[in-house]
Design brief:
Elements (H helix, E strand, L loop, with lengths): L1 H5 L7 E6 L2 E5 L11 H4 L7 H4 L5 H19 L10 E4 L4 E4 L7 E2 L4 E9 L3 E6 L11 E4 L6 H13 L3 E12 L4 E10 L12 E6 H9 L11 H10 L7 H7 L1
Parallel strand pairs: 6-10
Antiparallel strand pairs: 1-2, 3-4, 4-5, 6-8, 7-11, 9-10
Helix pairs in contact: 6-8
C-alpha cells in the first residue's frame, strides 16, 4: 500500500494468483523501463519476455504470459467500447467497468484464437518465413480465426491464402497461450496432396522441406527453427520424429 501511494501506476495492478504463500500481481510499468521507480528497480531488471521465454520453466513462463496478457488488456480497454467513457478497474483487475452510470458496461479479459499449422504430405512439410525474421529462420503457417469461423475452416482458408495449397484433413495437436499481444495458439498437423506453392504478401518465402533437408540445414547451420518452447517447434518436431532419421533434437544439438 505504501508503494501504491507513492507510485499511482500500482493502483492499476491485476491479481494473478497466490501460490506457495506468495501473492502475485501484474503491474503496468510501460514507459518506466529506462528509469523505473526506486521501489521497483531494486527488485530486478526489465527484459523482453519473448527473448527470456526459452530460459523459463513452465511455471514461471505461464505466470509471466498471464501477466503480459492482462497488462495488454488493461492498456487497450481504458475506454468503454459502448459509449466511449473511461473505464475503472474492478474485482482485483479482472473487470473494467464503464464509469458512465447510464451505461455501466462491464468489460472482461479476452483471448483471440489463432490456428498454427504444419502442412505436410507425409514425406515433406511446408515451412515459410517473414521478411523481418532473422536470416535462415523458417516456421509453420499461422493466422487468426475470423468471427463465425470454425478452426478447421480457418486452417483451410489460411493455408490457401498464404501458400495457395488445399488441405483435406487437420488433426489437433496442442495449444499454447501467446500473449503477443493476446492470442491462444491452437496447433494442428494438416495433410495435403497439393504441390505448387504460391506465396502471398504475408510471407517473404515458403517452400517444401523433406526431413533430410531439415536435418542437413540444421547441421550446416543454414536453417533455424522456432525456439524449442514454441508450439511451432513442437509441431515440426512431432512430424519430423515420425520419420526414420531419429529425433529432431539430435540434429539441433549437432548444429
Amino acid at each position: 500500500m505504501k508503494l501504491a501511494r507513492t507510485y499511482p501506476m500500482l493502483n492499476q495492478s491485476s491479481f494473478l494468483v497466490r501460490q506457495k504463500g506468495v501473492t502475485f500481481f501484474a503491474v503496468d510499468l510501460s514507459g518506466e523501463e529506462q528509469s523505473p521507480p526506486d521501489g521497483i528497480s531494486i527488485l530486478g531488471r526489465f527484459r523482453n519476455l519473448r527473448k527470456l521465454a526459452p530460459l523459463l520453466n513452465n511455471e514461471d513462463g505461464t505466470l509471466l504470459a498471464y501477466a503480459r496478457a492482462m497488462i495488454y488488456w488493461h492498456t487497450t480497454h481504458r475506454f468503454c467500447g459502448m459509449c466511449g467513457s473511461p473505464t475503472v478497474v474492478r474485482d482485483a483487475g479482472f473487470v473494467r467497468a464503464c464509469s458512465n452510470q447510464a451505461c455501466g458496461t462491464l468489460h472482461f479479459p479476452r483471448t483471440d484464437p489463432a490456428v498454427i499449422v504444419l502442412v505436410n504430405d507425409g514425406n515433406r512439410c511446408i515451412l515459410g518465413r517473414k521478411a523481418d525474421w532473422p536470416a535462415g529462420t523458417y516456421s509453420t503457417l499461422a493466422g487468426f480465426v475470423e468471427p463465425g469461423e470454425s478452426l478447421e475452416a480457418a486452417i483451410v482458408r489460411e493455408v490457401a491464402e498464404e501458400v495457395g495449397i488445399d488441405v483435406y484433413s487437420a488433426v489437433y495437436q496442442s495449444s499454447q497461450p501467446w500473449p503477443f499481444p493476446r492470442s491462444l495458439m491452437l496447433g494442428f498437423l494438416a495433410q495435403t496432396t497439393g504441390d505448387d506453392i504460391r506465396v502471398n504478401d504475408e510471407l517473404e518465402y515458403a517452400r517444401w522441406y523433406s526431413r533430410d533437408e531439415i536435418a542437413r540445414g540444421l547441421i550446416e547451420v543454414r536453417l533455424r527453427l522456432p525456439d524449442g518452447l514454441t508450439i511451432a517447434h513442437h509441431l515440426i518436431e512431432s512430424w519430423f520424429d515420425e520419420g526414420d532419421l531419429g529425433p529432431l533434437s539430435d540434429f539441433e544439438r549437432s548444429g
